Amino acid sequence: MRTKHVNLLIAFVATVLFSFSCFCISRLTQANNQLINCRNHILEFEDNILRLKNKTEKSNQELMKALKQIKHEITKGDNLSVNLVKKKLSKLSKNEAVPNTFEDLKFFLPHLRKEGRIYPDVVIGKGKTGVSFALGIPTVSRGNYTYLKQTLTSILSRMTPSEEKDSVVIVAIADSNEDYLQYVVRMITKKFKRQVKSGSLEVISIPTFLYPNISNAKQLTEDSQKTQSRKVKQVLDFCILMLYAQPKAMYYLQLEDDIIAKKMYLTKITDFVHNITSNNWVYIEFSILGFIGKLFRCEDLPGFVRFFLMFYKEQPIDLLMEYMFQIKMCDPVDSFDNCKELQKQIRIQYKPSLFQHVGTHSSLSGKEQRYNDIYY
User: What average pLDDT score do residues 160-172 get?
Assistant: First the structure.
């Protein structure tokens, strides 16, 4: 009987051990399967990361390729410009000089390649050069409204005599309306005699042949076509004015014909530029509005103009500036906020603003534009 109990106990223990072994094997199998699944997920994750990395590298390569292409096109433009200048110099008299930068227009604007000398008409000017600041003001007719006299009075009256001597204000008439040209000339010669006599105030007129025909560029409504033509023309106006001002000064200040300036604005600009800690800046904003109050080094202007001319049909000039800064400072993988922070290294904003927009009537008939600089 006792032996029977022992056998039963042994059998029971054996059964328990067997069951426990099976349970352990089952758990080990499940754990192994989980490890295999985890490993598969890790491998899949690594594969996704690799694909993303390859995609990013491909995007970077495409961007670099595009930038190299832009650089190649600019180099081609430079080479073409040099050849065109050499040809033109052989035809000009010894007393004539051709600014190489204007010859660059022939590369970007094919309709000009058969033209002779490209240069705006100098209506009033004594060829003043070697100054610290050139201030550019493009102007067009606004029908019965004009702000140019108010703008010039503000700009010139708020210079010190030494600042006026060390600067030149350039009014660029970008309008084919002969009556408007005559009005501007009469007004300036009557109101600003001293500045005209000293050469500190110049007036140029942009010939109409410099503008390309864009009527067939896009299928647009009549109103949209007018707006598009105005934007294209405005970019070209800025470019031509920049090229004219470039050899005259160390710095170029972009203004518009419907603004006013704060007292001692040029003194504040001079002090800020001389005391700035970084020398890597590309331009300084003395107003947050559009293309008003933007300060450039004159030596940098040809590079800006070439970039603007590559895309002059696509966007207004202030947006082209935004794209230029993105290309110069930001990677495709950078976030918007990070990109803005990087741009601050070369794009400096001065506050409070030194210029305020005062015009309400646009050059487009019937259109009003009411916007102000909140930091003025």
Answer: 97
Strands (E), the chain: 121-124, 131-139, 167-173, 201-205, 249-254, 259-261, 283-285, 294-297, 347-349, 355-357
Hey, is 351 helix, strand or coil? Answer: coil
Alpha-carbon distance values, 300 to 129, 151, 249, 283, 375 (Å): 17, 26, 12, 9, 27
Q: How confident is the model at residue 27 (pLDDT cuts 50, 70, 90)?
A: low
- Nearest Cα to Cα of residue 112 among 177, 202, 206: 206
Q: Smallest Cα–Cα separation from 339: which of 320, 351, 323, 350?
A: 323
Q: For residue 24, what pLDDT is reported?
A: 65
pLDDT tens, residue by residue, 204-245 = 999 999 999 876 555 556 666 777 788 889 999 999 999 999
Q: How far is CA 99 from CA 113, 132, 175, 247, 303, in A?
A: 16, 20, 23, 9, 15
For helices 336-343 and 317-329, give the axis angle rounded to 10 degrees.
Answer: 90
Q: How far is CA 191 from the centre of its chain?
A: 35
**What is the strand order of the sheet 249-254 is part of?**
121-124, 201-205, 167-173, 131-139, 249-254, 294-297, 283-285, 347-349
Q: Model confidence over 261-305: pLDDT tens digits?
A: 999 999 999 999 999 888 889 999 999 998 999 999 999 999 999
At 281, the amino acid letter reads W
User: Rounded distance, CA 266 to CA 161, Å?
Assistant: 12
H-state helical runs in 111-221: 148-157, 161-165, 178-191, 193-198
Sketch out the chain's domains with CATH numbers: 120-357 (3.90.550.10)
Would you say the C-alpha torsion 270, 271, 274, 279 has a positive or negative sign? negative
Residue 74 or 167, more confident = 167
Residues in the chain: 376
What is the secondary structure of 115-135 as a DSSP string?
Answer: -S----EEEE-----SEEEEE
Average pLDDT of the segment spanning 18-23 = 64
β-strand pairing of 294-297 with 347-349: unpaired
pLDDT recorded at residue 277: 82
